[in-house]
Amino acid sequence: MSNSTITASPAKDAKPEKAKKPASLWSDAWYDLRRSKVFLFGAALVLLLVIIAAFPWLFSPVNAFDPSTCDLTRARDGLDGTHWFGSDNLGCDTYSRVIYGARVSIIVGVVATIVTSLVGGALGLLAGFFGKWTDVLLSRIAEIFFAIPSILGALLILAVVGRDNAGIGSVVLALSLLAWPLVLRIMRAAVITTKNQDFVLAAKALGAGPIRIMIRHILPNALTPVIVVTTMNLGVFIAAEAALSFLGVGIQSPDISWGLMIADSRNRFLEAPAPLLFPALFLSITVLAFVMLGDAVRDALDPKLR
Questions:
Q1: Among 32, 237, 213, which residue's Cα sits nearest to residue 117?
Q2: Does 242 fall in a domain?
Q3: Could you tell me the keywords of this UniProt record (predicted)?
């Protein structure tokens, strides 16, 4: 018998190795978020609400700001083919007002969140990095604002600032003045933890200045808890704006706000429930969407929850 050369062939049954999850925090978080049903559902709702707020005329054939579309003879009518959500006390179409009211809520929530994140984040970065008298001074100022009850403080601010006619700017100012200390505390704690890490100490040893260390080394590694709180604050600010408008110190007519619509309809609720129920439903869905988004982001970015 002649010796035959045996050649090894690759095993047909060998399974390819599974792709490993990304190693960095942000790519790993995005990997988890894309597979989170809560995040996808919340993001889809938020995207729809943003589109409604930006282009309300695409969803409503009636311009809610046009007084000629209101008909007093049809005040408090029920749901029909003309008024899908019924009509309010002035005979205005409730559906169009709900659609156009989304813009105020989204704008207030987004702008107030941006202001509080920038102010609180910057002051928290300074307090945590420099410490000593800077930390003491900023922390004491923040504690003064923490001692003010949120709704009572907002009522007082709007009574002074928006005394003649409270608008979006006045509401954003009131909410931002009372919310930035929370972001400061969270950023300060994250900075204090990060500044003692080896890579920060190495940057100091190499002669990096304080500005470079804060911006290039500390800030990117301290943003995670701030992003989580910022996402959740969006829903909180939207609910707060509705509460202030309901109490009569927030958004005023002729602007349209879900809280203002609920306030205008509460006295005739038993006679015509639709003008109150639909704004309340949209408000609840909006707050729920941002809360779901915040929960998903927290679960993805918090290593303790992995």
A1: 237
A2: yes
A3: Cell membrane, Membrane, Transmembrane, Transmembrane helix, Transport
